[in-house]
């Protein structure tokens, strides 16, 4: 049986937070810390709270795990073919963690006990003051179909790794930024745009295909311009826009294939333009335990539910 590499040092979305150290640290499989992985020296280049020290200080304490909470469904509205906008009342101590870019939750039918029915769903929007979570569900299977017909749902959160390139989103300030949208990954752009605007960036949106009305309304409410284009016909238009506007950062909410096309356009302008992309990998547990999210990057196994990956590295090596 193939084993995970022990010497991969990547940033973990949970590092230094409430849920660190996690089960991976206790088993010696920490994504970030080389000391926990068995190395003789620290070379993680991490400037936050030391996971190794946290682990040593907390061995006698139970791991702080995310808990399932039964929450009221306030409304369910069909907004497309098997697409539903669901508003959920969540506790305010949970809501305060759901405004970050890339954050997602697990939802589960109130009548199911097994964790196999947990469905990872991106946070579209959160009203922190009122504790109202908004998500878009594609009701196509046993995990999601029952949710749209219920008045309550189990919510397990927060999970943070729904985007590759979180550091670039959070650190970019006072610059020209572009959001490119294609498909259902558009559901996570609201928190991204808000963070970029909060950091005094100029933001515009380019949409290939259809933009859901609810997403369009929320983007326009932030006074962000929306442009529509066709990736097959308008590559030169996008190229010219990126070059003329001196775009320094791009977030692409789309499939791997589409994001790769955007990366190629960026590289033809300037390979130094920062790029973040949506994480569309299969996620089942969100804790790096089950292995469903593992991808092979240039011969190395990476747990994509927690590990941050450079977007260009990912798009270059993933099939």
From TrEMBL:
Pfam families listed in its UniProt record: Fer2_3 (PF13085)
SUPFAM superfamilies listed in its UniProt record: 2Fe-2S ferredoxin-like, Riboflavin synthase domain-like
Alphabetized InterPro entries for the sequence: 2Fe-2S_ferredoxin-like_sf, 2Fe2S_fd_BS, Beta-grasp_dom_sf, PyrK_electron_transfer, Riboflavin_synthase-like_b-brl, Succ_DH/fum_Rdtase_N
Domain of life: Bacteria
Gene3D superfamilies documented for this protein: 3.10.20.30, Translation factors
Domain Succinate dehydogenase/fumarate reductase N-terminal: 255-311
The protein's required cofactors: [2Fe-2S] cluster; [3Fe-4S] cluster
Homology family: Belongs to the succinate dehydrogenase/fumarate reductase iron-sulfur protein family.
Protein name: Succinate dehydogenase/fumarate reductase N-terminal domain-containing protein
The organism of origin for this protein: Intestinibacter bartlettii
């Amino acid at each position: 049986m193939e084993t995970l590499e022990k010497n991969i040092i990547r940033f973990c979305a949970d590092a230094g937070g409430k849920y660190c150290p996690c089960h991976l640290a206790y088993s010696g499989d920490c994504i970030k810390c080389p000391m926990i992985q068995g190395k003789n020296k620290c070379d993680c280049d991490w400037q936050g709270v030391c996971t190794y020290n946290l682990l040593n200080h907390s061995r006698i304490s139970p791991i702080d795990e995310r808990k399932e909470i039964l929450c009221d469904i306030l409304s369910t509205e069909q907004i497309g073919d098997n697409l539903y906008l669901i508003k959920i009342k969540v506790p305010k101590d949970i809501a305060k963690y759901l405004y970050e870019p890339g954050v997602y939750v697990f939802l589960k039918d109130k009548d199911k006990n097994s964790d196999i029915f947990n469905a990872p769903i991106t946070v579209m929007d959160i009203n922190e003051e009122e504790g109202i979570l908004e998500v878009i569900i594609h009701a196509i299977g046993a995990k999601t179909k029952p949710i749209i017909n219920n008045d309550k749902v189990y919510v397990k959160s927060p999970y943070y790794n729904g985007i590759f390139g979180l550091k670039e989103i959070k650190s970019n300030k006072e610059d020209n930024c572009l959001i490119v949208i294609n498909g259902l990954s558009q559901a996570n752009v609201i928190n991204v745009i808000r963070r970029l605007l909060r950091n005094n960036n100029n933001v515009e949106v380019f949409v290939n295909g259809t933009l859901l009305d609810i997403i369009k309304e929320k983007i326009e409410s932030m006074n962000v311009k929306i442009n529509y284009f066709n990736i097959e016909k308008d590559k030169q238009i996008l190229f010219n826009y990126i070059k003329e506007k001196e775009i320094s950062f791009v977030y692409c909410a789309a499939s791997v294939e589409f994001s790769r096309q955007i990366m190629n356009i960026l590289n033809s302008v300037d390979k130094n333009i920062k790029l973040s992309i949506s994480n569309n990998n299969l996620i089942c547990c969100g804790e790096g335990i089950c292995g469903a999210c593992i991808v092979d990057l240039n011969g190395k196994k990476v747990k994509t539910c927690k590990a941050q990956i450079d977007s260009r590295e990912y798009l270059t090596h993933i099939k």
